[in-house]
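Lab notebook page, bench 4
Experiment: in silico fold of construct C2
Operator: M.H.
Input chain length: 104 residues
Purpose: comparison with the prior construct
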Amino acid sequence: MRFLVIGLGSMGKRRIRNLIALGHSEISGWDNREDRRKESSHKYKIKTFNSFDETVKLFKPDAFLISVNPDKHMEYAYYAYERNIHCFIEASVTEAEKIMKLSV
């Protein structure tokens, strides 16, 4: 399974470590910040991208691990839903009822 970690701050890096600990190797990351991309690429030996659309196009993820600020969660959750990509979000989801209705 190919995992895309969206947001490479502290929670995104934790998600990468968790995936690696579970034996997954097809992990990529995306973040707006170059310093976070460089750190994650160096520290975890994953491919990172500076363009979200390019990331999805080239990496072709099976699942998103959404680790950005909560006000951006649904933007990526809807993007995933529209493209039949699984997603994981761990935090208060501001539009949880909407996404739950979509998944039924």
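Observations: The chain has five helices and five strands. The mean pLDDT is 90.
Next step: discuss at group meeting.
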